[in-house]
UniProtKB/TrEMBL annotation:
Keywords: Glycosyltransferase, Membrane, Transferase, Transmembrane, Transmembrane helix. One of its GO terms (molecular function) is mannosyltransferase activity. It comes from Oncorhynchus mykiss. Its main location: membrane. Pfam families: Dpy19. This is C-mannosyltransferase DPY19L1. Belongs to the dpy-19 family. It is a multi-pass membrane protein.
Length: 668
């Protein structure tokens, strides 16, 4: 077995080559074929993602347990089911274990496929089983393993690289899918702008603003990594439909299903799309028949997802389905917006409260758990300045302004047509309808951009939808319909290249800054914790603690946990709230009673959760103060237990980060 040593340093040479290839693609855009540019976009982006991920964690040289620890919070939870599935004796047994999970919310038995939208893990797990089965049958090696020397006197660990390694296979498939997404962006930009150069502009803008457009390179297992590429394809198909091409309706429905199945948040995104389409419809840019067709597709997609997710209640209580039903009634019966108030009847509480907290002073424990996280905060000024420096924001403002001007002129033209003779009016409409179809798609994209912009200002996480759409809209600088007044193609291309050159000043700096991120993942305290659990606790032991740590415990030890990072189910929120009384100011006796109620054997205490806060009012004791005013002013229980866990708990393990407290058996 070979010996390798972990490295440091960046790969600046790769970044220079990547930028050079992108520039070459721009120069050759009018002479190359669409498939060639498509493949280049795919290959470059996939290589970029792979190298960023490798640079950040040195993933290829991590041991199995280190790779698992690298999947923190929700990532570890999702990956644990992939691990369960591929380690099961058969496909059906693996599916049974996932659908009858007794380790994630002990002592409950839950259908994890339904609860956590685990179709990506089932699909990838099936591919992995098929792949390794075929390779083993033909005796073809699928991975290379070696010992890796570690610093600080740590023992060497075995590390494996290759598609036969489960974690390597999982991550590679995610990056492959997102590489295909970049190809879709190139095709989308080309189609929207009517120019292959527009596709290149989209791709380059995405590279220049990559850090604001995706986080797949840091968090591959998150649901958006599997879902968002299908949203890009869905919007491309919707654009085709808005151009009078309705043959894409079935494909649109399939994309809706593939977008909705992996990610609960997807229905909220589709809600904004329905709202934008209704705006186009009520402004007269979308015919009644086409609006009905789109609603039918969305309703059918929803029904399929509802069945495939075993009648998941959260789907029925979403704004998305209520808006679809109200929209159908509006189009078919009353032709007004009054029935849209039905969407307020079955609200999704956590989304409604989150928005309410942004617009008012409302706050409670669960809302603060969201809003105190950086991704749910208001968008940062630094992010907006970044958009300005890469010109993506100014360009989009100009484009939306020009589209607004076009819309105004068309409205005036149709007002004039209303006073023409029947013959002249017929000829006018024959000429204007194709123009209206093109303007309709631009109006829709402008409205969708505004919707994402407003939401991104309120919730920074939405910038992952805003930035890619701005990059896509930037392709319209190549549109002859919007910028034909510049002059012939040569002048237009010179203008586009000038804009790209200015964009590249900050864009290339952003690109190289990302390439310069170099790390070497190590989490020795957690590794010690997991090894202690494996060696010193029974396989049926039950743990409670912070949500991120519980995901790692479940993944790497196979022990049951009472709470986890999937903080969306109402019942699970209340369980987590009981667990987090450990970080309140409540008496130790009451907290112990809560843990006994959950039937936990051990609690993993972390001082960092007791002391840290992202901003004033966001430490765990301060979050508890909102609802537990009776105990305000007292020392947090976690502070007291970090000094001495007696008499209510017994310390079983301790290092500089973690402290494992045992709940006495006689008390239980």
């Amino acid at each position: 077995m070979a010996m390798k040593t972990r490295r440091s340093g960046d790969q600046a040479q790769f970044s220079r080559k990547c930028v050079s290839l992108c520039v070459f693609q721009v120069i050759q855009s009018d002479r190359q074929t669409l498939p060639l540019a498509d493949v280049m976009s795919n290959t470059l982006f996939r290589a970029h993602l792979t190298n960023l991920f490798e640079n950040d964690k040195h993933f290829s040289h991590l041991s199995s347990i280190e790779k698992e620890m690298a999947f923190r919070t929700e990532m570890g939870l999702y990956y644990s089911y992939f691990k369960i599935f591929i380690n099961a004796p058969s496909f059906l047994h693996g599916l049974h274990l996932i659908m009858n999970d007794r380790f994630s919310e002990y002592p409950l038995v839950i259908n994890a496929l339904k609860r956590f939208n685990l179709y990506p893990e089932v699909f990838l797990g099936s591919l992995f089983r098929i792949y390794t089965g075929i390779m083993d049958f033909f005796g073809i090696p699928t991975k290379a393993c070696w010992n890796v020397n570690r610093a600080d006197g740590l023992n060497p660990v075995e590390s494996c690289e290759g598609m036969g390694d489960a974690a390597y296979f999982y991550v590679s498939c995610v990056f492959l899918l997102n590489g295909v997404m970049m190809s879709l962006f190139y095709i989308y930009g080309t189609y929207l702008s009517g120019s292959r150069l527009g596709g290149v502009v989209t791709v380059l803008c995405l590279f220049f603003n990559h850090g604001e457009s995706t986080r797949v390179m840091w968090t591959p297992p998150l649901r958006e990594s599997f879902s968002y590429p299908f949203f890009v394809l869905q919007m491309l198909l919707l654009t085709r439909i808005l151009r009078y091409i309705q043959r894409s309706l079935v494909a649109l429905g399939a994309c809706n299903v593939l977008f909705l199945l992996p990610w609960p948040f997807a229905q909220f995104v589709l809600l904004t799309q329905i709202a934008c389409l209704f705006a186009c419809y009520f402004m007269g840019y979308l015919s009644t028949s086409k609006m009905k067709s789109l609603l039918v597709v969305h309703l059918a997609s929803f029904a399929i997802c509802f069945v495939m997710l075993f009648g998941k209640l959260e789907l029925l209580t979403s704004f998305y389905i209520s808006s679809l039903v109200a929209g159908w009634v509006s189009v078919n019966v009353c032709m007004t917006l009054t029935s849209l108030c039905v969407s307020l009847y079955f609200p999704q509480a956590h989304i409604g409260n989150l928005i309410r907290s942004k617009l008012t002073n409302y706050k409670d424990f669960h809302t603060l758990m969201y809003t105190c996280a950086a991704e749910f905060d208001f968008i940062e000024l630094e992010t907006l300045l970044g958009y300005v420096k890469t010109l993506i924001l100014p360009v989009n403002i100009v484009i939306v302004a020009i589209i607004s001007g076009k819309v105004r002129h068309i409205i005036l033209d149709f007002d004039i047509a209303a006073h023409l003779s029947p013959f002249d009016a017929h000829n006018f409409h024959c000429v204007s309808l194709p123009l209206c179809a093109c303007v309709c798609q631009m109006v829709y994209h402008s409205l969708q951009l505004v919707a994402f912009a407003v939401l991104a200002i309120l919730v920074m996480r939405i910038k992952l939808f805003l930035a890619p759409l701005m990059c896509l809209m930037a392709s319209l600088i190549c549109s002859r319909q919007l910028f034909g007044w510049i002059g012939e193609h040569f002048k237009s291309h010179i203008t586009v290249f000038g804009i790209l050159s200015i964009m590249a000043i900050q864009g290339v700096a952003n690109f190289q800054s990302q390439r310069g991120i170099v790390g070497d993942f190590s989490n020795l305290p957690q590794e010690q914790l997991l090894e202690w659990i494996n060696a010193n606790t029974m396989p049926n032991a039950v743990f409670a603690g912070s949500m991120p740590t519980m995901a790692s415990v479940k993944l790497s030890t196979g022990r049951a946990v009472v709470n986890h990072p999937h903080y969306e189910d109402t019942w699970q929120k209340e369980r987590t709230k009981l667990v987090y009384t450990m970080y309140s100011r409540k008496p130790a006796k009451e907290v112990k009673r809560n843990l006994m109620q959950l039937q936990a054997d051990y609690f993993i205490l972390e001082d960092s959760w007791c002391n840290r806060r992202s901003r004033p009012g966001c430490s765990m004791p301060e979050i508890w103060d909102v609802e537990d005013q009776e105990n305000r002013g007292k020392l947090p229980l976690c502070t007291l237990l970090s000094i001495d866990s007696r008499p209510h708990f017994t310390t079983m393990f301790e290092n500089k980060v973690y402290k494992v407290l045992k709940i006495p058996k006689d008390a239980k």
